[in-house]
Amino acid sequence: MLKRCFILLIAIASVNVCLAQEVIVVKRKLDENINEVFDVLKSNNAIRNGKYTAYYKKKTIFATGSFDNDKRVGLWQFYDLKGNITQTYNYTSKKIYYEAPELESSPLRYFVDRELNPGDTITKPLRVGGRYYGFLPYLDLFTLPSGYQELDGKIGAMVELLVSPGGRLADYKVHLIVPGAPQAFRIINMNINLPNPDDLVFVPAKLNGEPVSCRISIRCGITSGGHLEFLQ
Fold first, then answer.
1. Measured between alpha carbons, how far is 111 from 216 in angstroms, rounded to an integer?
2. pLDDT digit string, tens, across residues 171-184
3. For 18, 74, 78, 142, which has the most beta carbons within 10 A of its beta carbon?
4. CA distance 157 to 148
């Protein structure tokens, strides 16, 4: 009997080895500041399968997790620009397990179009991926319009996102700003028909437990390539 069980265990192990697919490691730039390192199938390098790590400026961990057949699975952790964890999210159970408190130094601010009364409780909108990695799709959409390149290094930007009570991205604007000026000298309306529908989804803000619309502002710099980047 023991011999049969031993043979059966060897057979199961052999099947698992056969089912395991070979992977290779790929490195690429996600944008001017973010580099990705991840596994892809050796038989099809368009399919991510295995470990994933993103780095900010090549050295600070920005995101970690795993893919299974090109889908994010299990626990992922997301970090700020200094390597501090901002969010832990489980893609399998679709649950946020941890969201770090918003610091005064954060480049993000939140505004609801409601008059607040003493005793009101309000929660901010949440984005899967946290306050940095999760907002990259919006920053990466922007390129400085022609005619403004001569102002490179002399202007900044403020991203404005409107999140509906239903948790959907409803509007996206970029305000171009001269440092020290009281207001934007140009406001650019961005297209919200994003390639990935998941980038339209938020956990909405809530006022006394009821979903409300909320505007998110993000202070940004403009890179030498005319793209947006987070300010530290």
1. 7
2. 999 999 887 777 77
3. 78
4. 13
Give CA–CA dist 36/59, Å, rounded.
11
Pull the structure tokens for residue 116.
Answer: 């607040």
The β-bridge partners of 122 are 207
- For residue 216, give the H/E element and its range: strand 214-222
pLDDT digits (tens, 9 = 90+) for 118-153: 999 999 999 999 999 999 999 999 998 887 766 666
Residue 102 has φ and ψ, to the nearest 5°, of -80, 125
SS3 content of the chain, % helix, strand, coil (to 5): 15, 45, 40
Cα–Cα distances in angstroms (integers) from residue 170 to residues 147, 151, 209, in the given order: 28, 30, 21
Contact residues for 228 (Cβ-Cβ < 8 A; gap 6+): 139, 140, 142, 157, 159, 174, 220, 221, 222
- pTM: predicted TM-score of the whole model, two decimal places: 0.85
